[in-house]
Prior knowledge:
This protein has strands at residues 7-14, 17-21, 24-28, 33-36, 42-46, 51-57. The protein is mostly beta strands. The strands form two sheets. A three-stranded antiparallel sheet has the order 4-1-6, with no helix packed on it. The protein has a three-stranded antiparallel sheet with strand order 3-2-5, with no helix packed on it. 10% of the residues are buried.
Amino acid sequence: QEVHPMEQIDVILAGRMKYVVDGRELILGPGEALGIPGGVPHSAIALEHTTMIEVFTPIPNFPTNEIRTP
């Protein structure tokens, strides 16, 4: 799990992701989105090859060109 002060929005374009947000499990697929408030513990794992968009606000101070692979 991770916790950061930024708000996070994830949009799934293809594939499926499993999230655990503040102890609640969610599975998202293409066309679905999830908002995670800042300060809330969360984790995510790709259940299959997934293409997604992650948006953070305010802009984080970590690399934004990161490519994550399972």
